[in-house]
Amino acid sequence: MTMASLFSTLARAGGLSRNRSFGLSRGVRRGVAALAMACGAMVGTGLGVGTVSAQENIPLDRAPDNGENLASLQHGAQLFVNYCLNCHSASLMRYSRLQDLGIPQKQIEDNLLFTTDKVGNTMSIAMRPDDAKAWFGVAPPDLSVEARAKGRDWLYTYLRSFYRDDTRPTGWNNMVFENVSMPHVLWELQGVRTAKFEDTVDEESGEKVRRFVGYQQVTRGKLSPVDYDSAVADLVAYLGWMSEPEQKTRKQLGVWVLLFLGVLSFFAWRLNAAYWKDIK
Ligand code: HEC
């Protein structure tokens, strides 16, 4: 649904159609129907965001909601800068913005910046897209608004679903992103795992299917499974924050705006009553 067609639909619904007559003209009715459909479509696409289905019917795990927790967000920012920013950029994000998470500028400069970067720079990367393409087959996408594109649950599941697969060029595969060309960059934290599959025959169709049975831990990671999950939750919280840093302000401001409109409506109502008092 493009903006232009939405506007033309609105214009038609507003009676600007050529077919003008009293009552609900056909044009207006058609316009209203189209508008309803347009809204339906918009709601549909709105719902579509974040419900990227997992492959092989792997259900997505629910990401803990750490978006309000500053310590989590700081930890997530640190993980992001250390583990993701070599390949992925976040071109809509400035380092200085991390001060909103309570990280002092000095600390950003000392711990989170690459030597060539300045604190006012955006989170860009040195790797050229062409090189990245040659190395990985696909250039790693910018992650500025990834949390809104894929949804937090998908990210949370994705970063916890890597397994060792020697048939892949990177040596890694992923349960929710089959044949992904990203290596498991957090493997030191999680340890190495393989996935166990079982070949079964589907009873209805008689086709052979490969069923995922579970993971097997091969070597232990630096973090326990529980700590790894919590680290990924922090990272995902950070990715969520980065995709909309103003979210908290927006919600707080929203409450005030609604209160203001409420008070305004009251006065408008009383004023209206006062104006019409003598006429009625
Ligand atoms: C060694 C380089 C490299 C590093 C480091 C890296 N990635 Fe990736 N990532 C890739 C590549 C390449 C792809 C594209 C995969 C594909 O399309 O097959 C990718 C894809 C992704 C995707 C899926 C994007 C999409 O919408 O298709 C997400 C999410 C992601 N990476 C998150 C992360 C996070 C979070 C980190 C840090 C923990 C990270 N990556 C670190 C190389 C990297």
TrEMBL record:
Listed name of the protein: Ubiquinol-cytochrome c reductase cytochrome c1 subunit
Source organism of the structure: Paraburkholderia tropica
One Gene Ontology MF term: electron transfer activity
Cellular component GO terms, alphabetical: membrane
Gene3D superfamilies, per the entry: Cytochrome c-like domain
Main subcellular location: membrane
Stretches that traverse the bilayer: 253-271
Keywords: Heme, Iron, Membrane, Metal-binding, Transmembrane, Transmembrane helix
All copies of domain Cytochrome c, residue ranges: 71-243
